[in-house]
Amino acid sequence: MESQITIRPMGKTELTAMVPGSKSYTHRMLICAALADGLSQVKNGLVSEDTLLTMNALNKMGVSVRKERGSFWVNGTGGSLGRYEDPIHLGNSGTTLRLMCAVAAMGVGTYTLTGTERMQQRPILDLAQALEQLGVPVETNNGCPPIKIQGTAIKGGKVSINCGVSSQYLSALLLIAPYTQDGMEITVTEGPVSKPYIDMTVSVMKAMGVEIKRDGHTWFSVPGQSQYQAGEYMVEADASGASYFWGAAAITGATIRVAGTHSASCQGDSRFAYILKSMGCRLDETDEGLAVAGRDLKGITVDMGNMPDVAPTLAVVAAFAKGETRIENVGHLKAKESDRITAVITELKKMGVQASCTDDSMTIIGGKPKGAVIDTYDDHRIAMSFAVAGLLAPGVIINNPSCVDKSFPNFWEEWEKLY
Ligand SMILES: O=C(O)C1=C[C@@H](OP(=O)(O)O)[C@@H](O)[C@H](O)C1
Ligand SMILES: C=C(OP(=O)(O)O)C(=O)O
């Protein structure tokens, strides 16, 4: 792929866009299927850089996972894993790295999980400390990967965890809890941020046969000595990927339906359509999917703590709305693929947008953004969000467009349909 892509003006007034399967569901279903006993088929799973990293890590830990005829096929080993002594490279996939730390803790021997330079700056300490409470020997590099984990027969019991930076730590513990001797009683001491991802974890566990008791998002009790059931599982459309098409509709006035999306989804990012509604858009939901129809947009104040991945999409849409938009409670954006608060504000300013930030918020004054060369910081969501801006502001050029491979490898082909 070229090293830059120039975004062309919006051509269509109405269309249905296709997005791949949800990244978050795919990671979870591959892991649960790997821990189940027997063969599972994961249908419509996302095939992208990050989900392939999860597949490869599971293969290295002794579970056969392959992709064939549009599905992932997972030969679950009922929770027994093999040794793997070389470092396991997990790119910049935070979900893979955090969830696989817990899986490694169930294994045999010592595993080293690491990733890109940026992944080595993304925190893991709170998860490491929770695993230590469970008797798992763990070593980090100043609270970040590389992380060394010694596989242990985990007895389980009470554990507390700080999820003020990431919900992935809690998802990680929940996913392995059924395989402990006594189960786990987990108390969340801070947060969790990104709550819907916890609900998704609980719902995948339930779909695969493990019921959890809980008190909101701060206390969870998972039975031990239980197991996921192998079977046929279906991944729904990715709501985070849908946000770029809904955002495109919002700023251009077009009507865009995203196939397979629905408002009852466990994916918090499906609520993004409702945020656009509160800015003035119309929504229409049919069996085919959720559609956004763009109208005059007005700025809003909104807490995006539960939808971090679509905060950049919202910031770009806000640049075209009337008045001020305040995006609050998004401190955890600083620990993503890039520091997304700084990246979004820097790039919006290049487009002449009045934008500012604090450590956990962004403020954008809508207007008439102009074209610019956008740096993407190797962050798929920065590339895809600013593609939205280019539909209306002539001359937006996206650097390093192939970074979308992380979550949406055919994004640019799908985007062509808008012209
Ligand atoms: O559990 C998951 O699948 C995810 C949780 C979120 O991370 P945090 O909980 O770290 O905010 C989100 O940003 C990430 O893309 C996927
Ligand atoms: C933050 C993201 O992913 P991860 O944490 O898995 O790297 C993302 O997809 O926006």
UniProtKB/TrEMBL annotation:
<feature type="binding site">
    <location>
        <position position="166"/>
    </location>
    <ligand>
        <name>3-phosphoshikimate</name>
    </ligand>
</feature>
<dbReference type="InterPro" id="IPR023193">
    <property type="entry name" value="EPSP_synthase_CS"/>
</dbReference>
<keyword id="KW-0808">Transferase</keyword>
<feature type="binding site">
    <location>
        <position position="406"/>
    </location>
    <ligand>
        <name>phosphoenolpyruvate</name>
    </ligand>
</feature>
<dbReference type="GO" id="GO:0009073">
    <property type="term" value="P:aromatic amino acid family biosynthetic process"/>
</dbReference>
<dbReference type="Pfam" id="PF00275">
    <property type="entry name" value="EPSP_synthase"/>
</dbReference>
<protein>
    <recommendedName>
        <fullName>3-phosphoshikimate 1-carboxyvinyltransferase</fullName>
        <ecNumber>2.5.1.19</ecNumber>
    </recommendedName>
</protein>
<dbReference type="InterPro" id="IPR006264">
    <property type="entry name" value="EPSP_synthase"/>
</dbReference>
<comment type="pathway">
    <text>Metabolic intermediate biosynthesis; chorismate biosynthesis; chorismate from D-erythrose 4-phosphate and phosphoenolpyruvate: step 6/7.</text>
</comment>
<feature type="binding site">
    <location>
        <position position="23"/>
    </location>
    <ligand>
        <name>phosphoenolpyruvate</name>
    </ligand>
</feature>
<feature type="active site" description="Proton acceptor">
    <location>
        <position position="309"/>
    </location>
</feature>
<feature type="binding site">
    <location>
        <position position="122"/>
    </location>
    <ligand>
        <name>phosphoenolpyruvate</name>
    </ligand>
</feature>
<feature type="binding site">
    <location>
        <position position="94"/>
    </location>
    <ligand>
        <name>phosphoenolpyruvate</name>
    </ligand>
</feature>
<feature type="binding site">
    <location>
        <position position="194"/>
    </location>
    <ligand>
        <name>3-phosphoshikimate</name>
    </ligand>
</feature>
<keyword id="KW-0963">Cytoplasm</keyword>
<dbReference type="InterPro" id="IPR013792">
    <property type="entry name" value="RNA3'P_cycl/enolpyr_Trfase_a/b"/>
</dbReference>
<keyword id="KW-0057">Aromatic amino acid biosynthesis</keyword>
<dbReference type="InterPro" id="IPR001986">
    <property type="entry name" value="Enolpyruvate_Tfrase_dom"/>
</dbReference>
<feature type="binding site">
    <location>
        <position position="336"/>
    </location>
    <ligand>
        <name>3-phosphoshikimate</name>
    </ligand>
</feature>
<feature type="binding site">
    <location>
        <position position="167"/>
    </location>
    <ligand>
        <name>3-phosphoshikimate</name>
    </ligand>
</feature>
<feature type="binding site">
    <location>
        <position position="381"/>
    </location>
    <ligand>
        <name>phosphoenolpyruvate</name>
    </ligand>
</feature>
<dbReference type="GO" id="GO:0009423">
    <property type="term" value="P:chorismate biosynthetic process"/>
</dbReference>
<keyword id="KW-0028">Amino-acid biosynthesis</keyword>
<comment type="function">
    <text>Catalyzes the transfer of the enolpyruvyl moiety of phosphoenolpyruvate (PEP) to the 5-hydroxyl of shikimate-3-phosphate (S3P) to produce enolpyruvyl shikimate-3-phosphate and inorganic phosphate.</text>
</comment>
<dbReference type="GO" id="GO:0008652">
    <property type="term" value="P:amino acid biosynthetic process"/>
</dbReference>
<feature type="binding site">
    <location>
        <position position="340"/>
    </location>
    <ligand>
        <name>phosphoenolpyruvate</name>
    </ligand>
</feature>
<comment type="subunit">
    <text>Monomer.</text>
</comment>
<dbReference type="GO" id="GO:0003866">
    <property type="term" value="F:3-phosphoshikimate 1-carboxyvinyltransferase activity"/>
</dbReference>
<feature type="domain" description="Enolpyruvate transferase">
    <location>
        <begin position="17"/>
        <end position="415"/>
    </location>
</feature>
<feature type="binding site">
    <location>
        <position position="168"/>
    </location>
    <ligand>
        <name>phosphoenolpyruvate</name>
    </ligand>
</feature>
<feature type="binding site">
    <location>
        <position position="309"/>
    </location>
    <ligand>
        <name>3-phosphoshikimate</name>
    </ligand>
</feature>
<feature type="binding site">
    <location>
        <position position="23"/>
    </location>
    <ligand>
        <name>3-phosphoshikimate</name>
    </ligand>
</feature>
<feature type="binding site">
    <location>
        <position position="168"/>
    </location>
    <ligand>
        <name>3-phosphoshikimate</name>
    </ligand>
</feature>
<feature type="binding site">
    <location>
        <position position="28"/>
    </location>
    <ligand>
        <name>3-phosphoshikimate</name>
    </ligand>
</feature>
<comment type="similarity">
    <text>Belongs to the EPSP synthase family.</text>
</comment>
<dbReference type="GO" id="GO:0005737">
    <property type="term" value="C:cytoplasm"/>
</dbReference>
<dbReference type="InterPro" id="IPR036968">
    <property type="entry name" value="Enolpyruvate_Tfrase_sf"/>
</dbReference>
<feature type="binding site">
    <location>
        <position position="24"/>
    </location>
    <ligand>
        <name>3-phosphoshikimate</name>
    </ligand>
</feature>
